[in-house]
């Protein structure tokens, strides 16, 4: 197979795009996909500072590198989850990588908030990944708001988005379906959330990391076996093998035809958000989910 751009021997075949690229031209394809997403959804305004959530995994590191190369003013943010078997390595990888790019990085330590993922897991009987996701989203947003970042970028890729969309569809969860997409505009108390890698698959991002020599965390989180998304990812991987382009079609058609319907439903139902009585961030209850988690963990520790 030959490279679509220069006709040299191809190194990466992309069946869903019906094309292939050599090692030199592949990063141009990658960049154009990211640029296209940013422009199409007007994700970043000129001169806007972008806070990038970095976990140490391939997606977030590829994202921060690509955004910097596109000329955006980026700042990394890592949440140290205090998981003994994985957090020190994830933090080291983020610090080393951001230093090599000369990109500022801030680390928020859950332990300074009286929390850690193992502690929360031992005290709260809910799936740990959903609690962990809630904590990360809260601290990313809190840092963005308190440090005047109007845009928060995450490394969610097409496989993440398709799996999440599929999980929400299996449950017909209208509330989640109404706000799934590559851009969530800013509202009072929330920075805008963008996913510039949403058109790229894990395979495509892994190839970018390999060709650009990005060292990233490969060991899974010790709690990842409990996550449900890998099941959906496996199903979609099989489907994509049999029906090339199924993932992108499912997701793009949802954005075009499905999401507006659910968004209109959410507008009609919209429940007012109020300031959390404890931390002041927006919530639909009197106390936000994170403050309730902190209270539960604190009470258990005092008992
Ligand atoms: Fe958090 Fe679950 Fe991801 Fe581990 S696998 S980092 S617990 S969301
Ligand atoms: Zn709160």
From TrEMBL:
SUPFAM superfamilies: Adenine nucleotide alpha hydrolases-like
Residues annotated as binding Zn(2+) 2: 276, 279, 288, 291
GO MF annotation list: ATP binding; metal ion binding; transferase activity; tRNA binding
Residue ranges of domain 2-thiouridine synthetase TtuA-like N-terminal LIM in the record: 2-26
GO cellular component, as recorded: cytosolic tRNA wobble base thiouridylase complex
PANTHER family named among the record's database cross-references: ATPASES OF THE PP SUPERFAMILY-RELATED, TRNA-5-METHYLURIDINE(54) 2-SULFURTRANSFERASE
Identification of the protein by name: TIGR00269 family protein
UniProt organism field: Desulfonatronum thiosulfatophilum
């Amino acid at each position: 197979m030959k490279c679509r751009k220069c006709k040299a021997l191809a190194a990466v075949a992309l069946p869903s795009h019906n094309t292939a690229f050599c090692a030199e031209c592949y990063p141009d394809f990658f960049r154009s996909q990211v640029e296209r997403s940013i422009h199409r959804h007007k994700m970043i305004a000129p001169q806007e500072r972008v806070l990038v959530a970095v976990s140490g995994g391939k997606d977030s590191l590829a994202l921060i590198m690509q955004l910097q190369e596109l000329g955006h003013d980026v700042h990394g943010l890592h949440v140290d989850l205090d998981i003994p078997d994985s957090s020190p390595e994830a933090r080291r990888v983020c610090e080393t990588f951001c230093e090599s790019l000369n990109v500022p990085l801030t680390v928020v330590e859950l332990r300074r908030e009286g929390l850690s993922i193992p502690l929360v897991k031992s005290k709260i009987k809910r799936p740990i990944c959903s609690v962990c996701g809630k904590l990360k989203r809260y601290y990313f947003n809190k840092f963005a708001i308190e440090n005047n970042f109007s845009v928060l970028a995450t490394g969610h890729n097409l496989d993440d988005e398709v799996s999440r969309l599929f999980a929400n569809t299996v449950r017909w969860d209208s509330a989640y379906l109404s706000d799934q997409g590559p851009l969530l505009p800013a509202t009072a108390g929330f920075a805008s959330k963008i996913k510039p890698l949403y058109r790229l698959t894990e395979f495509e991002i892994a190839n970018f990391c390999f060709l650009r020599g990005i060292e990233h965390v490969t060991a899974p989180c010790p709690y990842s076996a409990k996550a449900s998304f890998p099941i959906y990812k496996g199903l979609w991987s099989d489907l994509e093998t049999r029906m090339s382009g199924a993932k992108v079609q499912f997701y793009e058609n949802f954005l075009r035809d499905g999401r507006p319907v659910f968004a209109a439903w959410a507008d009609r139902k919209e429940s007012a958000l109020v300031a959390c009585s404890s931390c002041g961030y927006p919530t639909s209850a009197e106390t936000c989910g994170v403050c309730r988690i902190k209270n539960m963990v604190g009470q258990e520790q005092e008992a």
